[in-house]
Specification:
Layout lengths: L10 E3 L6 H16 L6 H8 L6 H4 E6 L3 E10 L5 E8 L8 H14 L11 E8 L3 H9 L3 E12 L13 E5 L6 H12 L10 H14 L8 E6 L4 E9 L8 E9 L8 H15 L4 E7 L6 H7 L3 E14 L12 H4 L5
Parallel strand pairs: 4-5, 10-11
Antiparallel strand pairs: 1-2, 2-3, 3-4, 5-12, 6-11, 6-12, 7-8, 8-9, 9-10
């Protein structure tokens, strides 16, 4: 769709690295309208664009107003096993109602359909987008484009006025920092194993997922491996749980973020997840953070929301996950815990 005119005055093309500041400004303008806060820094967006499985020439689109001002942006993420794609669309508040969002949505669907040929015959293929629950214009827009709400997710936050409780680590287990240069593969295997029980999980090639973690670790301006924690079963000398934390949130300098937290099945229901969460809270508190946030599936199959409530976290925002089916077929994503290990290849 590069070079397509919209309403006789707007043009489209893929982004270039020279656009990173302008697109950052656009994303933050849209975010400030919705939440009152910016959401991303230039370095973070650049890291996203340079992901190993992302191609800015094929996976992005910007809409230009006269004077080459970027007023709309779309991005699409899709990878093996090619059963779904994720799209993100942002339109400058001053330029809405002129067909820009519709143009980007059409591009996202056309781009995602190109991956249908890579998918196994008979598998279901869907296109996903996310919207803040209070953003009624976006939600209504997606509904008119034949999306439906497939899931809800929550942002939960704790505000700490004093140090969190010390973690009660179950007997035979220890929590310690991740060892950079030695445990990257073991950490990624653990994250994969943990999230097999997450609604919507689809197993990706390990090498792709591993390279994505390494790319983030080496390039994200806020990545801090001293805030990546693992729990070990001492008898087996094996990582059985992880908590990957981020020291900075663009929208709130007072907030740290728990990106990934989970426990492998055989070690659950023993208090390890709560201990790992308190350990993470404590580490961030000592760094001066008085708030910690994370994202969670509102209907978590493993009961994660109850754990976070027990730790003192409350719901701060709700997001809606919208889904459009582009091809019906066998759904290979996790939908329940029953039979999950029979259907998906368990590792380690």
């Amino acid at each position: 769709m590069s070079g397509l005119a919209i309403s006789g005055q707007f043009m489209t093309r893929p982004v270039t690295m020279d656009d990173v500041q302008c697109v950052t400004d656009l994303l933050n303008t849209c975010s400030i309208e919705q939440t009152g806060q910016p959401r991303i820094q230039v370095g973070e967006l650049k890291t996203d664009w340079e992901q190993p499985t992302f191609d800015i020439e094929t996976d992005t689109l910007v809409v230009l107003a006269p004077g080459d001002k970027i007023v709309g942006h779309g991005a699409l993420w899709s990878s093996a096993p090619w059963v779904r794609a994720f799209a993100a669309i942002d339109v400058h508040p001053d330029y809405r109602g002129r067909g820009i969002g519709t143009t980007i949505e059409k591009w996202a669907e056309m781009r995602s359909r190109r991956d249908l040929s890579r998918a196994s015959n008979g598998t279901r293929f869907t296109l996903w987008q996310e919207a803040l629950s209070t953003d009624r214009p976006t939600c209504q827009f997606l509904e008119t484009k034949w999306y439906h709400v497939a899931r809800h997710s929550l942002r939960m936050v704790i505000e700490m006025t004093s140090p969190p409780p010390p973690p009660a680590v179950p007997e035979g287990l220890i929590i310690r920092p991740f060892i950079r240069g030695k445990e990257e593969e073991a950490l990624v295997w653990t994250v994969r194993d943990v999230f097999r029980d997450h609604w919507g999980f689809v197993e990706r090639p390990f090498e792709e997922e591993y390279q994505g973690y390494i790319h983030f670790l080496e390039n994200d301006p806020y990545a801090d491996p001293t805030l990546w924690f693992v729990a070990l079963d001492e008898a087996q000398d094996k990582i059985v749980a992880v908590s990957v934390c981020h020291p900075v949130m663009t929208e709130d300098p007072e907030m740290g973020w728990v990106m990934d937290l989970g426990v492998r099945r055989p070690w659950r229901r023993r208090g390890l997840a709560l201990a790992l969460l308190y350990h993470s809270f404590g580490a961030l508190y000592r760094r001066g953070k008085r708030k910690v946030g994370l994202g969670v599936d509102a209907q978590s199959l493993t009961g994660a929301t109850r754990l976070y409530e027990k730790a003192g976290m409350t719901v701060d925002r709700q997001y809606l996950l919208f889904e459009k089916e582009l091809r019906p077929g066998e759904d290979i994503a996790t939908r329940s815990l029953n039979g999950n290990c029979r259907r998906l290849r368990c590792t380690q």
